[in-house]
Specification:
The two termini are 24 Å apart. The protein is built from 14 helices and 18 strands. The longest helix is centred in the last third of the chain and has 18 residues, at 336-353. By secondary structure, it is α/β, with parallel strands linked by helices. Helix 5 packs across helix 6 (183-198) and helix 12 (378-385) packs across helix 13 (389-399).
Length: 431
Amino acid sequence: MKPATFLLLLLAIAALSCQTSQEGPYDIIIQNAKIIDGTGNPWYQADLGIYRDRITAIGKLDPRLAKRVIDAAGKVVAPGFIDMLGQSEYAILVDNRAMSKISQGVTTEINGEGESAAPVNDKILKELKPSLDKYNLSADWIDFNGYFARVEKNKTAINLASYVGAAQVREYVIGFDNREPTAAEMDQMRQLVREAMQQGALGVSTALEYTPAMYAKTPELIELAKAAAEFGGIYVSHIRDEQEKIVEAVLEAADIGRAAKIPVEIWHLKTAEKPNWGKMSEIVRMIQQHRNQGIDMTADVYPYIAFGNSLSDVLNPLKWVQEGGTAKLLERLKDPIVRKQIRKELEARGKSRGMDFQLMMISYVSNPALKQWEGKRLTEVASAWKKDPIETLFDFIVADSARTSRVVFAMTEEDLRMAMGQPWVSFCSDA
């Protein structure tokens, strides 16, 4: 069904479990609607009576009892949509209207992709400060109790929920070092997860293609997932590889679920980069096999064939380059000798991974002097700067203090449709 045929009621699903009444009065009656109530039942036709912020009647209603009548003939009325992965944990504190979500019918957003709004300490706030300063935003919380109180105080237009990030607790305890936690540090990380769960987190999350999450080995993640499982949480992951090692990455997610006895969700499932196009049927078959074996494994996708992240994330597979945080990354790129080594390793990786700078589009810059390049491919920037794409990449990251966002057109419609067709797949925007 085309999106234009939907008339979205931006109300909670729970509101549909209302007391039906023919008495009125109503502020609004929506007539002749095809109602899909979110329970999985077939649609049915009825009128809806709304008084203040509640649906108070469903049935055949007298339009004379309403201040306003909306004819929904030919349209579907449904509860607001759930965005299974957004990125609005800070943006919602800047602009509480959430218009980009509300205008699409999204009324609930889930956050916390590997990193999360809490817990925070001075070490994390130092790394986060440039992003918050841009919007004159300060973090006046240290845990989820404080963060959720801030969200409530801000009177946000959408419902917000969050996982606690495995990378977040790692940064809190270890920082951006590429090493395993000590026994004492592991205990502290487990305790941070438990506290987050007690304060309302939905589970523990990972984003294993990014630093410092990529430094965590499977046993560490199992221990954190076990802590979340104590409170009925789930393990949700941007898996370790979405390209040529996606099979191994899916298997790792399943192993974590099995060992921790916890449900598993794979975020924005994809087979990215041209050498991997066509693999989705194999991945779908793998996940279904694990489901058949009793592992509660699900996934979500976003409905487009491009992904978005930081321009500096091109360097993530070179784990040492981003170790220590953003300041260290920029320091390495400014050093001619280190930069030469980064280039050598990146070129070697490109030959095996099908890295194509033509597919990369600059979507956001922080430095006003670079604003003209938003919406342009990296190859267009390289041509204008009369440099090759790799040198352009390095120079752009440095010029924008590693705060550039990119979009990469790396997937196919066929693979996307294959994933979307599975009954255990839901939807996210990742934005």
